Amino acid sequence: MPNIAAVLKSEISRVARKEVRAETTPTKKASSAHRTAIADLRKRVQALEQELRRLAKGVSRAPATGSAPADKSTRFSAKGLKSMRKRLGLSAQACGQLIGASSQSVYNWEEGKARPQAKHLAAIAAIKSIGKREALARLEALRS
After folding, report:
1. pTM for the model
2. Topology of domain 72-143, per CATH?
3. What is the pLDDT of residues 101-129, one digit of tens each?
């Protein structure tokens, strides 16, 4: 015959668990709903911040387009510099000589580790439109 104290203890534990579950279930559901609402709000805030950044960039660009057309020559792309150098068949050292900079500077510009100064940007823009023969001729002129 089972011990009455053990049976009573197990029954009390079962009823207590049932009551605790009944009390905590609404709280768990509310917590889940709050987490979902917070996630939706975060997404909305992120979308609004992106929109704000996009609009801010558009506003900051507006005066720049109204300024001198010389701004186009100051644009710089590391990938563009690298492809131009390869197109002309120049080493970094030779390219640096044409631009008036060191070969290490050219490497750093191509890797995106640094940005050329204004005087070098003008030189890069000048050699962008030349061909391979003219680049080699300019190098020979610089060496002699």
Report:
1. 0.47
2. 434 Repressor (Amino-terminal Domain) (1.10.260)
3. 998 999 999 998 998 988 888 888 888 88
